[in-house]
């Protein structure tokens, strides 16, 4: 494998889960990610589905808890789950908060000191990581989808809407849909992007859907017992804007589900199917 260090690999549903690290030229440090190669990948290139995780996660949470491999094996999709931020950068205070810094890169390209030298997660996800994946794994590089959870749901919506030519499908579990209007987003954007809110708009799904829209229907699942629903996630704001601009949206409120991976695992089959249909 070129430029990749294999950390560990495991047989899974007749395919392989692997954990890898590499020297990132975008984030200027070591980055980690996980890949699930379905059994079909041993015979031919397959489409790729990226999953962006939420606050406090590493590349492991999704592979261990989401139960996605079974469905990826069924449909012949490769899964890629990157880490949620650079780590051990030496930036003072990077480990102080669980919702900012380490584990909380928010999938933006930071423009402020001291974060901008390493916290370039948007470019890492959209450019460097796919280039690395396509060079090292049997992918159909023109067939990419993206999904995510919470902070990662925000990241998936932003990456897809800003790059509809790169991502044929998008979905999210309990995404932060209007980060400019919630405490997690305000904290992250003001520190990574500065206080000029104009710069925040290109990372806010509810703004982007107004400006850009997306070429196909967006699937979102949201638990009604999610403790972050009304304070941080605000799916009704996103739904309202989608309705105004006639963006197709399948927003499903799931009764009594919370914010956890138990919720994610419960609806994983539907999300993988959504992407498999779009990715052919
Ligand atoms: N420490 C927090 C809870 C953190 C949390 O719930 N993280 C979620 C993502 S939240 C939005 O991005 C998560 O995925 N955690 C990892 C897991 O494996 O569950 C608190 O105290 O509330």
From TrEMBL:
This protein's record includes keyword Hydrolase: yes
Record keywords, A-Z: Hydrolase, Serine esterase
KW ATP-binding (keyword) present: no
Family the UniProt entry places it in: Belongs to the esterase D family.
Matching NCBIfam families: fghA_ester_D
Protein purpose: Serine hydrolase involved in the detoxification of formaldehyde.
Protein name, as recorded: S-formylglutathione hydrolase
Gene: fghA
